[in-house]
Amino acid sequence: MAIVQCSLQCNDSVVNPGQISCGITNVFVNQEIRLAFTSAIDPNSISTNSFRMIEVGTGKTPAGTFTIDAVDPRILIYRPQVTFDSAGNPIFGLTQDAVYIFTVPALGQPGELGPFIRNMSGTPNSTFLQCALTASEDVRDASPGRPRATSFVRVVSGYDPNGDPIVAPAEVPAPGAESVWRDSSVRIVFDDVMNPATLANPVTGQSTHIRAFVDADGNTADPSDQVALNGTFTVTIDQRVPPSTTVIFTPSGGFPSAGRDLQNPRKVVVTLSAQISDLGGNTLLNPGQIAFEPEQILFDPLVIDEPFDDPSREDSIRTGSPWGSGLLVSGRGGGSGRLGDLIVLPGTIVELDTDFEDFTDITNPAIFNPANIIEPDQPFAVTGGVFEFTRLRVDAGGILRILGSNSARIYVRGVADIQGQVQVRGTSAVLHASASLTGGVGGVSGPNGGDGGRGANRPDGTAFRGNFNGAPIGGVANPGAGPANVLDPATYTQVNGVAGGGIAAPSTVDPNPTFVGGGGNGLGWPQPTAANPALHMPANVNDVSGLEFDPFTFCQYPVPAAPGGGGAHAFDGGNGIANFVELSPHTNPPVALGGDNALLAIDDAVRALTPELGFLRGGGGGGGGGASVQFTGVNSAPLGFDCTQPIGGPLQISTYRAHSAAGGGGGGGGLQIAAAKRLNLAGVIDASGGDGGSGTFPPTDPQRVDLAQAGGGGAGGSVLLQSERIQIQAVPGRIDITGGQGGRGSGNFNAPITPSFGGIGSPGILRLESPIVPSVEVEQVKVFPTESDLQTQYGQQHQIEEIFTTSDWLPLPEAPSSQSGAQSCWIRPTGNFFRLEFVEDDVDTLGWDMALRIQGQPLKQSYRGANQVSAMTLEEFFGREFGASPMVVRFQGARAVEVLVDACSVPETGISSPIAPGSLTGWLHHPGELNTYFADASLSSNMFRFIVVWDRSHPLFSMIEGIEDLTVTIQPD
Description:
By secondary structure, this protein is an all-beta fold.
């Protein structure tokens, strides 16, 4: 057996007698090699050892296939294997520009032990072939010229007695085909080795160059009504002669029916892009559309019945009502869910305002989709701070931040899952440089908390802008800051700090509340008081009588102003702590008191934080520090411990130093989260108070020019968590109601240096309510502050129960606490339906109905038909208007363009959504309204879901014991 011919123009080697070499040594990366032998080849003798292709440098054998020519069994064909990456781009068997040693071993060749290619009689090859090949050419077009596509489908030839289709045994050309079988695929054959990147992605099974549509009216010349038909594409390449590439399109769920309109049957349109090309870059010769008519299927009406026997159709994430025992009944609470989902994605910050929120700042429908709002008012806005979501999800790295003057009340009809942060905290006042003309701004409170008080403005130094002995005295103008009359305390308003904002007392629902509990303001110092009416800031350089100059500090005035007090809530706020120079007796400013907790009348009823009673409140804000003229000096030598002997002229102010002060911290806000089914907290709820502002000096200013006084800390807010099941991760600080720390301010500059401090803010109040009453002992490890913190910072007498209580969850019969609800998963009837026509009501048929169990009635009662309770329908009797009925039902539709992987977890938007963009309807009273909701057929609903919302506050609620089943009648088409 010997080689007689090869496709590489083989000939006898001149260099190596007895060896055949190749006349062609520069080959394509997909080069086919054909060898002809003297006799028929034994296929079992062919392997990568008897036919060797080895890459120089790596020693690798490229992937390839061996075949025997179907016509001549003496011919062996080797083809480098073509594979594809995840985008469908071809990867050829030979590497571009790589060098290969191609060898066919022969018996008798020195050093060759085989194996050898043999004939069918077992005789080995006797011709030794060896060549060095370089894959220097790009791609060889297996079939020169532009490729052509042909397409095929299976058709129905008739129907058996059971009505099942009889499928013709052979495929037919797709263009113009009629009665194409509902479960047929479309087979498209290209007469070349195609570039699969222009056909379909082998990983996703999707194509951008081959598209399928349903033409609603069959007029393919007008594509405006064409609806995308989703499915999967597979690509198969056959490199044998003649080469071909096959694409098979399999529609998701099969082809839809041609419809009931025999005059204008629907058509399926498959389009082939002009960009489809073969491996040689030649584009498709016959691009365009392939149109055919699917079989006509006349469907019987469907009755979708939900008997509530099991939870298979329950959207458990958005349902708080018990579902699955054969009776759907009201849940404990959780609200109506009228706003739909709120999902805070990783790395995003979502802010809600409890005064006015219209959600227009949220532009990503994956976070909040306005289409899901139940019967929105126009214009739509939430006022008053009550937010009713179907679900709440705050992902790790996401922040839900709530602002405004009202406490935040978040109701969740189903599940609240907090992995990130929910922030109702008060912000801290900023560091403050006392040279600023205006005082430091106080921290902003959380919702319904008290804002931090502003720090005092810098006293006006206009009268001190001259010089003493050629040196500036140091006055800086600040018109309006005053004091306008240094002997009148009423004019010290601007140089006094501002008290922290208070908390509504006796409650937030009182029509005329007073606001108490804010941290006291630090007074500007010195100023006249009843006990010391002569004390005052200097009016001009000659006014030295109001300051107590200290001979031990070079006849300067060393006394700072008072720091602000801390805000009150569960406890009193801390008093400002001023540290003064004690070398000489001075008159020090009165202490700024912390907010008074007694004015809030905190008792067990208040600690329950009941929002309807007005006890869900924020914490008091910290007070701002006072302004001062600390280290203002006179031209006196401290002789005999006296500063009344002038140097260089009459006694006067020779150095004027005036200082503004830092603001107080904002109080934490009030927050309620009532989640009907479950509240899972693995992230953080932060209702802490903000820290008081500090001076920018670190910790003292050796030049004595940056001497801001401190602000007080804001108090922690209120957190009320209610759910059938509360799960809090066992990690410290999952819930933070800590009071803010007081800032650091100017104090005693003699050794030891001791700054002053703003008063500490009080901790807030936490309440957990669940039918399985949470244990304070177990849960307190997850809360800041701890009991140890309370005793260290506020006194050993305090216990954790003063700020943390638990109870059963017993919502008041007042909306939204009285409301609960259930939501179904998406319901998509199975079948080759293009659209669903939801049956309207007529004389004999109801498009939808429910069977109610009514108190005192032994039989279940129709909701929308005749009943034994009233001459009118129960729908009319109870009323169906949202917010004015004991029970309302609503329906929503959408068009799915793909198979639903999980009907209970369907993304509504984004690339992973199976819903046609723009096809999600609002919530409607009747499924029949879905038929005409969109004029565009491409948006018509082919699936729906429903909600039931209960309201225990309605006077007729007690009559309804539950819903036994709910039915919707549909005519598929």
